[in-house]
User: Fold diguanylate cyclase from Acinetobacter wuhouensis.
Amino acid sequence: MISHYIKSLKNQFNSDIIMNWNNIHKSILVLVLAFGIQLLWIFWKLWIINTPSIWPWVNLPLIHTQIYINSISAFFFIGLVCICYKFQKKHWAHLFFPHLVISIFTLMFISDGFLVGIYSPATIFAFVSISGIGIILFNRKFIYIHLFNAFSIAIILMYCTYKNLVPYAPIFSQTLLEHDPQKNLFWVLSMAYFIIPILIACLVLCEVLLSQWRHRESLIQILSQTDPLTNLYNRRSFNEKLSLIQNTRTQYAIILIDIDHFKMINDDFGHHIGDEALKAVAQLLSTLVRSSDIVARYGGEEFIIAMPETSLTIAREVAERCRLAIQNQTLETLTQKKINLTASFGVATSEDETQINKIIHHADQALYRAKAYGRNQVHFHGEINHG
Assistant:
């Protein structure tokens, strides 16, 4: 049960949730976070109201007023979520709502930061964390505009508090602020109360986004290495892996395969059937080789197999096994007509040559002879004739 839950959670993390969301859905996420912040404020203030021993450290009339404001704000954010959801398919909504939501969230954040202290640990930490998440979620230029506005307002408030034009951290009492708040347990716990949920939310979002990016990178890497039709290695990745085999200085074999009369299949039955033939041969080759062998689509109707630590005898056996399997493979066309596939094989080993290009060239020469002698045959480098 636990392993199933962990696997399901991992699949969710690796899926395209959040990263592929449009701006409306991301705006809804921001509104949900804003709603959660309002709940944090409400719980904190209710705790204060029900704990008389804390009253000397706070501005109690402001606490009572703020509970109503936070409650109204929470319902307001839920209402915006419903509006965003209702108009999510409208083009204008994708242009308008993200700016509206981010602007409201910025004003809420500045207001909350002013209440607890514009340069308090909670405000600074929240500013850095939320800014980072915003830049990850939305277009950077879009976020930078709102960050500039928020930073400008914060600078103005800092200046005003420095000049005593506005009170600093008005939600706390002057008694607390004038007597080293860092040494006051209530103040310290309040900072931690606001920091920890933001930290957890940011860490979860970052982990989800990073997991999706890693998953995408791995998919991109796989796509760059594979042929999209057959899911085999492409020519470039095959050459890279063959170079690694060459560096081990062990004997290896190369098998070149060409589907017989492939152009005729395309011309007579269409490229769709030709694609089906390529996929069928690719599937057969993948299942018939060893786990250490490398199978790739080498171009058009050609395939190639690299077999590390392999003698000519073993390569001959594998090639013949693959030839027979392809010979027994049939395809059904749209007109219910059956097509019998065959392929020609050319085999060469590194026993007589050290250069990769020459070994592949030897295999290609053997393949040419197999086709010249009637196709559906396996030929080896060094043979005079097939017999």
Remarks:
- The two ends are 61 Å apart (CA to CA).
